[in-house]
Amino acid sequence: MCGIVGYIGNKDSKEILLKGLEKLEYRGYDSAGIALQNGHGIHVFKEKGRIADLRKIVDGNVTAHIGIGHTRWATHGVPSKTNSHPHQSASDRFTLVHNGVIENYDFLKREYLSNVEFKSETDTEVVVQLIEFFVNEGLTVLEAFRKTLTLLHGSYALALLDAKDRETIYVAKNKSPLLVGLGDGFNVVASDAMAMLQVTDKYVELMDKEVVIVTKDQVTIQNLAGETINRKPYKAELDASDIEKGTYPHYMIKEIDEQPLVMRKIIQTYQNEQGELTIDSEIIGAMNDSDRVYIVAAGTSYNAGLVGKQLIENMAKIPVEVHIASEFVYNMPLLSKKPLFIFITQSGETADSRAVLVKVKGMGYRALTITNVPGSTLSREADYTLLLHAGPEIAVASTKAYTAQIAVLSILAEVTAKSQNIKVDFDLVHELGIIANAMEVLCDSKELFEHISREFLSVTRNAFFIGRGVDYYVCLEGSLKLKEISYIQAEGFAGGELKHGTIALIEEGTPIIALATQESVNLSIRGNVKEVVARGANPCIISMKGLNMDEDSFIIPEVHELLTPLISVIPLQLIAYYAALHRDCDVDKPRNLAKSVTVE
Ligand code: F6R
């Protein structure tokens, strides 16, 4: 979703800002812009489309030691040059970039700005006009900025320039992520550390409703009352090479290939010196104290949560409910007496999940966040965190985070079971090792998946994924991958459910991708395949060794049946990847999607 960068220092900011925006491209956007401030004023360049399009219109002759930049994912107003950021106040004195949604923008416009002529349809323009309005009323810039913030309802990360002050970037945040990066003779602002890793790895976290005055030599954090807050910086543990594509054509395929490595990293990180899997005793205590676990998540993370339910119920014998975050906020089920909430979120910033976290924390319940991003909002605000250790995931379509989420959930289930002396009939460390090897085999079979993808998906307008038990959950993920990057309309179904309505959609040649990795339902899922084949469907069966039959298109290596999602998803990720390539789709940046969904 929207991304923000800012620079103030001794160097020309233009290239630093553009490179920073390129690093934020993965979050998803539809337009971009920068504002460069020098002795001649503030120069704004913005364009609909990609950063590459923005580069073409930025005047190479403009140099500036202070600037801000933005990638926009449209919420209020269509994607267009006019609606893209930065936005300027009526007199052009103030220039602002914003990430988030101002819910009461219409009210503020009517209440304070009825005489102002607006250029865009955005909520952001209201904020910058309000700042100017209060300055015109006699407040200092800082006072006007603070006053404006007190009136805003909703989420925001803001960076503001004042044409009369070349020494300061004003910054604030509420609910939307924003960091300040520290350098020698310069400071930067960024939605995430990756954007500015090119110039610094030293960052200061900002909390909601703080105001920050950033100059080239100083960063002053204040609360809304104007009191100064001291906060220590931290070092961003990111390797610059982690966020480069290297020799890969796309981040998605790089991240699919990284899955064996991530499995091994997770095993190592969660092992103690005796080689046993271990998790902070407070987290295990919270699991054992709870009478029901509520997993809350969105999208791919929700799909991982469904597999997590199976793991926790089977291994640790604690009942689990899995909920879609955006529904849970408004439609909360009757809770058990001692619930524990688990938030699964790759980014740690998803607004829908955060809204639930805030609500259940307000009700006094305990919460654990499972995330890939240390220091992210959901990590900070929950009682406990478990990290995925998957390395930055840049492609919009989540792959390695999904398998990492399932692996961490399996470890949580195992350690909880052991703490209660519940016998787990397999050695998880050993099984995860086997899975890492099996993942390698699958990643080495790319040509086959390219072929399957061409055969089944190159011309179709829709596709169905069917499975039973955990295979069904993986089908939900496989269909999500396919639709988000190839735009083929794809749905995942429980094998037995298809004939209760959806089978009406099966026509001659409709591709059906079926998973058959569960012994107890192997014959029934094959029966479901026969039902659709009888109506003309073109079946692609992916089975597990030992359960395979002659008609199968691909056989995955044998792993423990509770853990099959960790590998059965890889063929589906690869098939989706190649389907997108065959259709000339922008694999890493699919249309309309954002990586970090920071609005509800
Ligand atoms: C799909 C995908 C999304 C995310 C969802 C939640 O490939 O990545 O469905 O899973 O937006 O995001 P996180 O996990 O960051 O909370």
TrEMBL record:
Sorted alphabetically, the Gene Ontology BP terms of this entry are: carbohydrate metabolic process; fructose 6-phosphate metabolic process; protein N-linked glycosylation; UDP-N-acetylglucosamine metabolic process
**Substrates-to-products reaction catalysed:** D-fructose 6-phosphate + L-glutamine = D-glucosamine 6-phosphate + L-glutamate
Q: Which UniProt keywords apply?
A: Aminotransferase, Cytoplasm, Glutamine amidotransferase, Repeat, Transferase
Q: What are the GO cellular component annotations? A: cytosol
> For this protein, what is the EC number?
2.6.1.16
Domain Glutamine amidotransferase type-2 as annotated: residue spans: 2-217
Under Pfam families, the record lists: GATase_6, SIS
Stored HAMAP family: GlmS
Question: What does this protein do, in the record's words?
Answer: Catalyzes the first step in hexosamine metabolism, converting fructose-6P into glucosamine-6P using glutamine as a nitrogen source.
Protein name, as recorded: Glutamine--fructose-6-phosphate aminotransferase [isomerizing]
Query: From what organism does this protein derive?
Result: Bacillus salipaludis
Q: What is the lineage of its organism?
A: Bacteria, Bacillati, Bacillota, Bacilli, Bacillales
